[in-house]
Amino acid sequence: MADDRTEHILDAALTAFCQYGYGKTTMQDVARAAGMSRAALYLHFPSKEDLFRAGSRRAHSRALGEVDTALTQQGDVLSRVDAAMAAYFGGLMAQISSSVHGGEVLDASLDVAGDIVSEAHAALVARLASALQTAAAAGEVQFSTSDATAEDIVLLLLAVADGLKKTSADPQLRQQRKALFLRLVHAGIAPLRQPPAEGNAP
Asked: CA of 140: how far to CAs of 73, 76, 118, 191, 192, in Å?
């Protein structure tokens, strides 16, 4: 029951932060959205900062869960990594993207919960790199020809994905450019095919 109440409060807090922005949201606003007294709210969270951090931790935990699900799906490893990245960032943005205060909420995530954001990002990189390493062990990809590590590839993919969002407002164009980049990465880490032995040459 306590966990259900906490979830209810965090849902109400997210609604309030999206409605008013982090700076203008008060504990009274959250209490009102949660249908409880401010005194009762303080029994669960001693401050707005603690409340926001708890919400950030929950959001990132859920996003990482979506990553785990995406990585277990069928398909080549780069497609699964791409789907996992989309699930992670899509999950984090889904509830705030439609809010006029979405940018402020994102800024607050870095200011108030920067350590949580950093920990989750490190966990994301580790999960994606592990998927690439598993694929390399199975012979699906190799890194020796590109002189890169699995983590190098992941960090590059994340950087390009972030950059594409800033270079064009056209989602179709971004998708086309991303698809091209993924093809280039795939070509760079595809295992080299051994030439046929002379006696077996056609």
From this structure: 16, 8, 30, 7, 10
pLDDT digits (tens, 9 = 90+) for 79-94: 999 999 999 999 898 8
154 is in which domain, residue-wise?
A: 56-189
Q: What is the pTM of this model?
A: 0.88
Res 1: pLDDT: 47
Whether 40 is in a domain gets the answer no
| CA end-to-end span of the chain | 71
Mind giving me the DSSP string for 23-56? TT--HHHHHHHHTS-HHHHHHH-SSHHHHHHHHH
CA distances in angstroms from 105 to 9, 16, 52, 141, listed in the order given: 17, 11, 10, 39
Residue whose pair of structure tokens reads 């490190």 in the numeric block: 122
Residue-wise DSSP of 98-166: TSTTHHHHHHHHHHHHHHHHHHHHHHHHHHHHHHHHHHHHTTS--STTTT--HHHHHHHHHHHHHHHHH
- Split into its structural domains, the chain has a count of 1
